[in-house]
Amino acid sequence: KLERILNLQSITVSGNVFNSSTASGPQITLTKRFTNRLTVSYTSMIENVYRQKIAAILRLFPFLFVIGETDEFGNANINLNFRTNR
């Protein structure tokens, strides 16, 4: 229901919420589909909200995607993904 209220594609909580002593820790991801070709995700650590990541996925063709990511330190990358079905 929260997804519908915030108009999001999905809200995901991953990691062990009850044991945050692991290296990666629990995190929450909010995903919004702007068009059927563009999806943006925001990920934040639950324990440390300053650890953040933003990713954008652009579908160029049904088999070809451009994925861009950046984090709280300004580290950024762009990947070109090619998918095939057997």
Report on the architecture of this protein.
The protein has 86 residues and is mainly β. The chain has one domain (2-15, 24-82). It contains 1 helix and 6 strands; from the N terminus they run αββββββ. It has one helix spanning 2-6; strands at 10-14, 27-33, 38-45, 52-61, 64-71, 76-82. Strand 2 and strand 3 form a beta hairpin. The N and C termini lie far apart (36 Å).
Q: State mean pLDDT (0 to 100 scale).
A: 89
| Spans where pLDDT lies below 50 across 5 or more residues | none
The oligomeric state is single chain
Secondary-structure element order, N to C: HEEEEEE
Could you outline the blueprint of secondary structure elements for this entry?
Elements: H1 2-6, E1 10-14, E2 27-33, E3 38-45, E4 52-61, E5 64-71, E6 76-82
Antiparallel strand pairs: 1-2, 2-3, 3-4, 4-5, 5-6
Short description:
The protein contains one helix and six strands, in the order αββββββ. With 86 residues, the chain is mainly beta.
Please describe the structure with a list of short key phrases separated by commas or semicolons.
6-stranded antiparallel β-sheet; mainly beta; globular; 6% helix; 86 residues; single chain
